[in-house]
Amino acid sequence: MHFGAAVVGFHGLEGLKHMPTAIVPGIYDPDVADENLWIETEDAYRMTRWLGRHEGVLAGMSSGANVHAARAVARRLAEEGRSGLIVTVLCDGATKYLSEPFWNEQD
Question: For residue 32, how far is the Cα from the chain centroid?
Answer without folding.
Answer: 19
